[in-house]
Amino acid sequence: EQIRIEPFMTQTLKRMEDLYPEFAFRMKAEGIGKVVRINPLHLEQMLLIVIENAVKYSAEHKEIDIRCYEEQKRVCISIQDYGIGIPTAEIQHVFDRFYRVDRARSREIEGTGLGLAIAKNLISLYQGDIEITSIENKGTRVTLTFPAVSS
Ligand code: ATP
Ligand code: MG
């Protein structure tokens, strides 16, 4: 199924604003002419996992920036938060099932450590990729990329 990213993201963000009214979601979509071929429920599930993390691990800075753009024939969606971040040495592990960074830190924040493992499995069905860059106490950016299809 083909999805046009911009309207899909606008709709998803409306739902996020309803779910998390204390957060400000900002979206920038830069000339997204291409579409992606993906089951919309799968894309929605991946976005929910990543945005829920951005919300959970944001601490007091309650803004989330979402960018959609094309790069080298790939459609990219990045989700940036300004929260507690992930130590560099831990980033490689967060896609492992049940892995959670620093038990003490995540004790107050509930979770099973499955979200990103599921997102990674889903995205691999579509030749997609999920990448994380993060700075501790500054924030985290998660970027999803998919092969672009000409509409
Ligand atoms: P679940 O999603 O299953 O409810 P979870 O959020 O702990 O639980 P994942 O979504 O797989 O599990 O994330 C794994 C770990 O990566 C988290 O426990 C957290 O330590 C870290 N993490 C993920 N996203 C972020 C983020 N945006 N900022 C800071 N840490 C993050
Ligand atoms: Mg999670």
Automatic annotation (TrEMBL):
Annotated keywords: ATP-binding, Cell membrane, Kinase, Membrane, Nucleotide-binding, Phosphoprotein, Transferase, Transmembrane, Transmembrane helix, Two-component regulatory system
Keyword Cell wall biogenesis/degradation part of the UniProt annotation: no
NAD as UniProt keyword: no
Compartment annotation: Cell membrane
Primary localization: membrane
Domain annotation Histidine kinase: ranges: 1-150
A GO molecular-function descriptor: kinase activity
Top-rank lineage group of the source organism: Bacteria
Protein name: Signal transduction histidine-protein kinase ArlS
Protein's organism: Paenibacillus favisporus
